[in-house]
Backbone:
């Protein structure tokens, strides 16, 4: 047996027309299942409407304040550990680099100085190569365009970092609508 | 639904701790009630209410003052409870741990109180038969008199989705209620009885 639209009408709070009421009554006379749902809903709806609100046990606000203090101290503790961790990591990295360099210097001072001199020469030669490249382009690209491109690349990089940070921040609080 | 004065809300928005305590004092009952109706356990409801206020505290800067505060607050509570229910695999409702109920308007006799308590237990067990979002819609509709639009706004649904969810929930609850009653007694149907209106 087709129970639609009678179940819709039974459970709806919309006002029914005279024809709809008559059709529903006729259906209820012949449909045991809808009759049961109708009588159950007629009993249940007032119970739902009269259901009181339950209260928390006394002292809820004090417990909330304690919870807030605990959460704040937990957050502070976490921030503290994060700073200690980052500092330790940076310090350890610097220490490892320093020890390695110092070790090389102590093992073979002459080789170490030559290696550093080589690096210095490489840096200077790279600088001159770059200068040549830039000067060879300078006749075709105006200096303002070049500076503009430089700032544009910097701006795009900055905006990308900003976008990533904002995306991360907002995706964390997506449940707060 | 109780509403906090706009001045207090402004102070809360500015990060005033005392104003926030007043907010917790004002809204503890509706938030706890929603959490209890959703989760069915007083201890879990207490934890969920505390967590709701914590989320409100941390995200008060995201609150849009054009929206009713109670809708925003209860939507946070409802979303948190829905998340909690999804984490659960089985819902176990203890009928012995019913929290304090508001006294009825007229003081009933012991028999009436007993029936009231029994009805409340049955209502709570009916709610557990619904899926989390349908349950939230029913609680907001019957306990807070929210309109379809307010429920839709709180649960991030459309009004028509709320209507259909409420219809489905009513049908499920009526069937469960009928089955529960059937265990106690079988109603005798009188010939030509019309029970519709």
Residues:
């Amino acid at each position: 047996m087709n129970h639609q639209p009678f179940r819709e009408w039974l459970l709806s709070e919309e006002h029914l027309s005279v024809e709809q009421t008559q059709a529903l009554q006729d259906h209820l006379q012949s449909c045991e299942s809808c009759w049961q749902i109708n009588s159950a809903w007629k009993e249940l709806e007032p119970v739902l409407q009269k259901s009181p609100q339950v209260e928390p046990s006394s002292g809820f606000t004090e417990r909330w304040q304690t919870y807030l203090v605990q959460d704040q101290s937990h957050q502070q503790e976490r921030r503290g550990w994060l700073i200690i961790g980052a500092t330790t990591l940076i310090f350890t990295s610097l220490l490892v680099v320093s020890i390695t360099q110092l070790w090389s210097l102590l093992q073979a001072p002459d080789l170490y100085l030559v290696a550093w001199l080589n690096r210095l020469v490489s840096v200077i030669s790279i600088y001159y190569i770059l200068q040549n490249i830039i000067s060879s382009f300078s006749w075709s690209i105006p200096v303002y365009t070049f500076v503009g491109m430089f700032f544009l690349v910097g701006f795009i990089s900055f905006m990308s970092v900003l976008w990533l940070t904002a995306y991360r921040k907002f995706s964390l609080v997506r449940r707060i609508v | 639904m109780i509403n906090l004065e706009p001045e207090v809300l402004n102070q809360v928005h500015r990060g005033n701790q005392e104003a926030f305590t007043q907010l917790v004092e004002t809204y503890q009952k509706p938030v706890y009630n929603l959490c209890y109706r959703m989760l069915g356990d007083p201890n879990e409801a207490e934890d969920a209410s505390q967590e709701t206020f914590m989320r409100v505290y941390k995200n008060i800067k995201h609150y849009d003052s054009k929206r009713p505060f109670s809708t925003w607050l209860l939507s946070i509570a409802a979303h948190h409870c829905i998340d909690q229910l999804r984490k659960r695999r089985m819902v176990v409702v203890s009928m012995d741990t019913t929290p304090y109920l508001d006294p009825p308007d007229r003081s009933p006799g012991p028999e009436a109180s007993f029936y009231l308590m029994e009805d409340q237990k049955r209502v709570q067990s009916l709610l557990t038969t619904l899926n989390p979002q349908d349950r939230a819609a029913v609680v907001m509709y019957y306990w807070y008199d929210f309109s379809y639009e307010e429920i839709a706004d709180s649960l991030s649904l459309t009004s028509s989705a709320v209507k259909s969810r409420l219809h489905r929930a009513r049908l499920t609850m009526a069937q469960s209620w009928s089955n529960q009653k059937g265990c106690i007694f079988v109603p005798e149907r009188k010939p030509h009885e019309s029970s519709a209106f």
In short: Chain B touches chain A through 58 residues (CB under 8 Å).
